[in-house]
User: Fold this.
Amino acid sequence: MALGAWSIPATHPAPADLAAWLSAVSLAGLGRPVAAHPAWEREAAGAARSWLRLVDEGRHNASWAAASSLLKEEVGPSGWSSALRAVRAPLGRCLSRTLRSRDVVEGPSGDLRGPYVVIRFDTVFEGRSPVAETVTPVLGADGRWRVAAYFIR
Assistant:
């Protein structure tokens, strides 16, 4: 099924469906745009940068603990740490990270509606440059932004 036609059930989706939806939103920009909301964009970008600092410092368990429950339901702390090591170690240290874009999108219906902010960075690592990093925080019921998805291309 084409990503543009992907649908998520209104109830809690299966983990694979949620992962596919987050991938489509984060990488292909297929989320339903929400009107500009500068405060959300700033707050989500700040949360994303703080979270990325944990990843950059190799504090994988701390980055998992600081992530949204959506990410935690997809992968446990040891799986998260292994995946980050496999992806980030060959890249080396992060030398620079420049904000490319921030887009507020609505999630699937039900308790996963969001909002989400898809944040794209142009990032230079010592082992490879440039790469596109996409971090997608979601606004929690407690009013805090937490990372729900992270991709490097």
Observations:
- Helices lie at 15-28, 38-56, 60-66, 69-74, 77-88.
- The chain has one domain: 14-152.
